[in-house]
Fold:
Amino acid sequence: MIRTLTYIDAQQTACIHADALPDDFLPSFGAKFLEILHSQLLSSVKVTATGYFENDQLVGFIVGTTNTAQLFSEIFRAGFLRFLPFILKKAITSPTTFKKLLETIFYGQKKSTVASGELIIIAIKSSCRRKGIGRKLFKRLITDFRIQGVHLFQVSTLVNNQSANQFYKRLGGKFNHSFSMYDQRWNLYEFSIYEKKV
Ligand SMILES: CC(C)(COP(=O)(O)OP(=O)(O)OC[C@H]1O[C@@H](n2cnc3c(N)ncnc32)[C@H](O)[C@@H]1OP(=O)(O)O)[C@@H](O)C(=O)NCCC(=O)NCCS
Structure:
């Protein structure tokens, strides 16, 4: 079953996010931080989020936005006091924490393409991959974006995330450029909605 997600689903989406991308910057703050972040994300009117359920258990989700420029700065401003203890704790052991946090907050403001939508994250439970669930969620995001008047959207993924790069290319993504964030290289793909054949 596919359905729209709300903040009530945040614990489950955060759990899948942490398992799917354990080495990423945001999961490195820990499970509780990620759950707060997800609950802010899933509450935002700027976000479109869909989950794929099997036997009432969430096994995959996708999150998109039509306003990356403001999304992360709004989320961190609104949840500042709740995020602060996690940020300070991590900063003690990792001096690059503040730099990376600023990169997250201002990520969407370094606008490099004309895309009006962005796929923020897609993650499928590892035991459920290569069964077409990612493709179904992706198709649903396209439907939602189309309703919102988005004709072009983008997604960024780490250069060394082979499955995600293959997935985006297979689904029609056109490589646009690479850039640096969190001291790593990322690829940015663009998707033209009306040309798409998923
Ligand atoms: C990327 C990801 C979302 C794909 O989800 P999925 O449900 O496994 O993808 P699908 O089964 O719908 O695959 C669709 C097509 O993408 C391509 N693809 C997906 N995973 C692939 C892999 N590991 N290697 C090569 N191609 C792959 C294939 O062409 C596939 O079609 P096929 O199975 O008929 O050959 C999933 O691997 C995942 O959750 N990864 C960890 C989280 C992540 O990296 N997210 C992206 C960063 S935001």
